[in-house]
Amino acid sequence: MTLNDRILGLLALLFAALLAWKGWGLEAPFAYEPVGPRAFPLLLAAVIGSCGLWLLLRGREQAEANPPGANTRIAVMVGLVIVYALVFERLGFVIATTLMTVFVGRLFGGRWRACVLGGIAMSVVFYLLFDKVFDVVLPTGLLSLGA
């Protein structure tokens, strides 16, 4: 089965429409962030929709078959994202994101040391960026138990 750019563009447009439809109704019970919870899904829908539209209008290429093992890595990635979503609040942003980064890095051939150090650094930097710069409240999870 081949999947050309136009089919992928159409699927991206449909996904963007679904994301915009579901994201439009998001409202916080009280204002705790400057932009509110609906901004991210709507921005993401706009980016995905723009890319889908571009593929739909300009797409002409046939997709190449995935290399051996790629489909398995994709399935594992989907599983990791599901687990990440399930443990995000309980473990907290820093721990959950560190684990996710380590496992994704290993999945794509990274060395343990580099994956662990990169995961910790990325999690802490993004936590500080969202918490201090963007003023977005992220769950601290297990790290709040020690405080």
Any chance you could write out the topology, listing elements then pairs?
Blueprint: H1 5-24, H2 39-58, H3 70-91, H4 93-107, H5 112-133
Helix pairs in contact: 1-2, 3-4, 4-5
Summarize the structure.
By secondary structure, this protein is an all-alpha fold. It is 67% helix and 0% strand. The chain folds into 2 domains: 1-65; 67-142, no CATH class.
What does this structure look like?
The chain is mainly alpha-helical and 147 residues long. It has two domains: 1-65; 67-142, no CATH class. The chain is 67% helix and 0% strand. The protein has five helices and no strands. The protein has helices at 5-24, 39-58, 70-91, 93-107, 112-133. Helix 4 (93-107) runs antiparallel to helix 5. The protein starts with a helix and ends in a 14-residue tail after the last helix. The model has no long low-confidence stretch (mean pLDDT 86).
Descriptive tags:
147 residues; 2 domains; 5 helices
Q: What share of residues are in beta strands?
A: under 5%
Indicate how many domains the architecture comprises.
Answer: 2
Mean pLDDT: 86
Which value, in Å, is the CA radius of gyration?
19 Å
Helix content: 55-70%
Give the overall silhouette: flat
Distance between the termini: 54 Å
**SSE run:** HHHHH
Count of alpha and pi helical runs:
5
Tell me about the biggest sheet? none
Secondary structure class reads: mainly alpha
How many strands appear in the DSSP assignment?
Answer: 0
